[in-house]
Amino acid sequence: MKIALINHGCAKNLVDSELMLGALDKKGYKITLDENDADIVIVNTCSFIHDAEKESVQSILQMIELGKKVIVAGCLPQKYNNELKEAIPELTGMIGATNVKDVISIIENIDEYKNLVNKKPKYIYPEDIKRQQITVGASSYIKIGDGCNYECGYCIIPKLRGKYVSRPIENIVREAQELANKGVTEIILIAQDTSSYGIDLYKKQALPDLLKKLNEIKEISWIRIMYTYPTQMTDELIDAIANLDKVVKYIDIPLQHSHPRVLKAMKRPVMDYSELINKIRNRIPNVSIRTSLIVGYPTETDEEFEHLYNFVKNTKFDRMGVFEYSREKGTYSDSLKPQISAKVKKERRKKLMELQQLISLENNQNYIGKTIKCIVEGYTDEGEVILRSEHDAPEIDGLVYASTQKNVVPGDIEDVKITDADEYDLYGELIEE
Q1: Cα gap 39→202, rounded to integer Å
Q2: Does one domain contain both 182 and 250?
Q3: How many domains does one find in the chain?
Q4: pLDDT digits (tens, 9 = 90+) for 292-328
Q5: Mean pLDDT score, 215-235
Q6: Could you tell me if residue 246 is inside a domain?
Q7: Alpha-carbon separation of residue 126 from 102, 168, 209, 244 (angstroms)
Q8: How far apart are CA 348 and CA 297, in angstroms?
Q9: By residue range, what is the domain housing residue 348?
């Protein structure tokens, strides 16, 4: 009996998938990377927006058509539970988004349908399981917590994942050391909100303490933090990022909007984000700031969108993603009126992204002539080295392409002199020693 797994969604889901594979491996099950060769396929699903749900459902139906026994895990069964089984009666079993080890009991009873979705989700990290990594490279994600205590108007995640649950510092440090021993040189800390790490466990923001411990791991070169929350960008956290040499000078802080009324309608912190960004830039030399924004949130007027446009124009984010608002049942914003038309949402996104392309090109051109440290990712077919600067997170930001005569391997940190730039990527030469 061979088992395969298809993963959908974010890096947090990827870690859950790797934990499921680790649990199966511990029990001695045979795992294959080829779903065509498997008897059982686990589909770990995403339910953040409608398009992600469609992708997950397509994978499920495709595997059923191939005659596989299909177990559905993650956010989709957590959100739709009984409706999912009614819509796809061929399912073999379902587990929710918060206890990855439940997959074992379904496989142990594979011939009888089991629904192990917890009605009241509370995330349980299986600390006794070693992740079986699907992606092996210079960088690796570490989940430091899961769940969320905020109730943003557009987001279903707290209902699917429950309240915030942090992992103990010593367990995270041990996992980071194990990854370092395997040759990982960059660790990327993830959670629904990394900046709230530790408040449940230690009764205070413990991310600065965690960063100090991770900074001591000899074999790690870079530590990157994703998904911070504006009100948790404390002086202590800013100082830790500024002063710890292995913590990359990169802040990922999804702000979602700039207009006070829209922020209030989104149930987000109403504060002066320009002031916060200036403070971060003043306190962390050479910092790169990434944000993500939502356009077309219900009730957003043309004037409020212009406010956002001008905010982006003045702030000049180093990296930025823009999402069209996606209407999700069970969220506060689902019942807000007026909802914005698809055409207007598309236009607003296009306008912001065109502005950001110009900003990004200008930012990137400032690198020309400078030498920057980059992590090696691999090679192009033409033999150019593919790298990534400390100002770029894997898969969502840009890359650096460089020519060299040197032999380099993924994970090496190299000095690259930048000679050219476009809107997203940099080009240069490795400094030969």
Answers
A1: 44
A2: yes
A3: 3
A4: 999 999 999 999 999 999 999 999 999 999 999 999 8
A5: 97
A6: yes
A7: 11, 12, 23, 29
A8: 11
A9: 139-365
The token duo for 218 is 């000899």
Tracing tokens 């392309």 back to the chain, one arrives at 357
* Gyration radius of the chain's alpha carbons: 22
The CATH number of residue 327's host domain is 3.80.30.20
Q: How far apart are CA 345 and CA 27, in angstroms?
A: 48
How do strand 385-389 and strand 400-403 relate by DSSP bridges? antiparallel
As a whole number of angstroms, the distance between CA 195 and CA 197 comes to 5
What are the DSSP calls for 142-180, one per residue?
Answer: EE-EE--S---TT--HHHHH-S-EEPPHHHHHHHHHHHH
Mean local confidence (pLDDT), 196-224: 97
Q: Which of 213, 218, 216, 219 is nearest to 183 (CA)?
A: 219
| Residue 339 CB neighbours (<10 A) | 16
pTM value? 0.93
pLDDT of residue 49 exceeding 90, the answer is: no
> Do 202 and 333 belong together in one domain?
yes
DSSP state, residue 392: -
